[in-house]
Every structure is written in structure tokens, then in C-alpha cells.
Amino acid sequence: MSTQQAEPESQEAPEDPEMKGAESPQERRLDDKDDGMVDEHSEKKAELEGETVLIKVFRYDPEVEGKQEPRFDDFHVPFEKGMTVLDAVMYARDEYDSSLTFRHSCRQAVCGSDAFFVNGRQRLGCKTQISDLDQPVRIEPLPHQEVVKDLVVDMDHFYDQMHTVEPYFQDGDTPAVDDLEEQRQSPENREKIKMSSRCIWCGACMSSCNIAAGDNEYLGPAAINKAYKFAMDDREDEQIKEHRLRILEQEHGVWRCQTQFSCTEVCPKDIPLTEHIQELKREAVKKNLKFW
């Protein structure tokens, strides 16, 4: 029982308005991405109206003699309001050089197929506005991955790492048909793993990771985030969670992360990847703690 007496209401400290509106680390990072850029972007859009944009596109074709040496081709693309990097390279392909090769599909930042290295940063082509970039706009394939042709990179290794963590729901023993019930998830648990479920498998985070660049066996931030989504789901039983943690705490798993936040910075879906990796480290430590 507490012996502390309640203080009179008149002596309660007034609520600090700054504390009431305090932001989480994730919210602060998202604000930093946009802070101070609105006016600059508006000025750039005004300057570009009716002008052309110079894009410098990486070119490489191992199957064509004379194009096996990497180079950059320049394209002057007419600027239109709302033009994205993907719009610009599509215009260059359709109007200037039909052999220009790149991946794209939904054009709505959902499929993740058009991740490029734009002006020194991993970005989604369909999500990146030309007006937000300095000219000339330099467009390259994702670093640290083998280039197949032009802006297309080999994603097989990335997909292999994703599948290593068994990215599918497992609930242990399936009950008899007569006993089947809906597996409900609490709103609190759904909120906890919500951000991790936004991954679109674009590979931008893997490309930005210095550890993945030097360690081909490292699972990488995307795969670990995918494992986080299922490991933190309350509907999976404890044995399955322990199995996932054993995969993640291997030599080339979560402990290889050096907390550089590069993956978090380039993620087009604003997933707090580094925070998820650190939380899985804590879970792995707790699993191995023994009291006797």
C-alpha cells in the first residue's frame, strides 16, 4: 500500500503543452524529411515551367558490341507539372531511344519495381518529383547489385534473402476442422506491426546498407523487417517465434547491423527499419536469459 497522500487539486502541476504534443522519433524523422523543402520545391517548379529537364541515364548492355562499356546518355525531356523521374525516363525511351531498359509497373509506389539511384540516393522513380531535384538529374541502377542492362539489376539475391526468413504466417498445429475459429488480432498488436507490413520489396534499403555491400550473407534490413512482422504477431505461437529468432540471431542476422539508419533514411514507405532491427536484438537477448 502506498503511504503517499494525494495532493490537493490546486497544487497539480499544469500540463506542459510541449510535452502534450511531443513527437515520436519516427514522426520527427518524417518531419525532417520535409522540413524546409516546400518553398524550395515551389521555386524549382516555377523555374521549370515550359522548360526542358536534362536527365543523365546510366547505359550498359553486355550483349551488344559497342555498348558493353558503361556510360551515361543525356536526354532533354520537356517538363510538365507533376512529372516524376519515371515519367522522364519513359519519355526518353518512347521519344529518343527505345532500347532504354528499366522496370516499372503500377506507377503508384506500390509494386516497388522502379527503384533507382537518383542524384546519389535510392528512390522510387514513380514517387520522386523532377521538380524536387537538382539538375542535371542523374539516374543510375541500384548500387551493390549486379547490373543486367541499363537501369535493371539482378534481384535474385534480394529475393533469396527475403525467403530465408520464411515470410509467411505460421500458427503451429492446425486444429481439427470442427474446432476452427477466426484468429483475431488485437488493435494494439496490429498497430505495433502496421509499419512493417508496408514493405514493397523494392530493395532500396538493401542497396543503401554498407553491411550488405560487404557481407553477401547478411539477411539485410528488408528481410529482417519482414521477419519482424511475423515474429511480433501475437497470433503465432511461441515455438514459431523462437524459430524465427534463431534464424535472425545467426552470425549474419540482426547482430551484423551497425545502426547506421541508412535503410530507414531511403525507405520510400517510411518504415522504421533500424528500430525494428534493434527490437529484434532485444527479443533475442531476452530469449537467451536464464534465471536460476
Automatic annotation (TrEMBL):
Residues 17-46 have a biased composition (Basic and acidic residues). CDD domains: fer2 (cd00207). Its cofactor is [2Fe-2S] cluster; [4Fe-4S] cluster; [3Fe-4S] cluster. Pfam families: Fer2_3 (PF13085), Fer4_8 (PF13183). GO terms for molecular function: 2 iron, 2 sulfur cluster binding; 4 iron, 4 sulfur cluster binding; electron transfer activity; metal ion binding; oxidoreductase activity. Residues 55-159 form the Succinate dehydogenase/fumarate reductase N-terminal domain. Residues 1-46 are annotated as: Disordered. Keywords: 2Fe-2S, 4Fe-4S, Iron, Iron-sulfur, Metal-binding, Oxidoreductase. Coiled coil: none annotated. Pathway: Carbohydrate metabolism; tricarboxylic acid cycle. Residues 196-271 form the 4Fe-4S ferredoxin-type domain. Gene3D superfamilies: 3.10.20.30, Alpha-helical ferredoxin (1.10.1060.10). InterPro entries: 2Fe-2S_ferredoxin-like_sf, 2Fe-2S_ferredoxin-type, 4Fe4S_Fe-S-bd, Beta-grasp_dom_sf, Helical_ferredxn, SDH/FRD_Iron-Sulfur, Succ_DH/fum_Rdtase_Fe-S, Succ_DH/fum_Rdtase_N. One of its GO terms (biological process) is tricarboxylic acid cycle. NCBIfam families: dhsB, PRK05950.1. Belongs to the succinate dehydrogenase/fumarate reductase iron-sulfur protein family. This is Succinate dehydrogenase/fumarate reductase iron-sulfur subunit. It comes from Natrinema zhouii. The lineage of its organism: Archaea, Methanobacteriati, Methanobacteriota, Stenosarchaea group, Halobacteria.
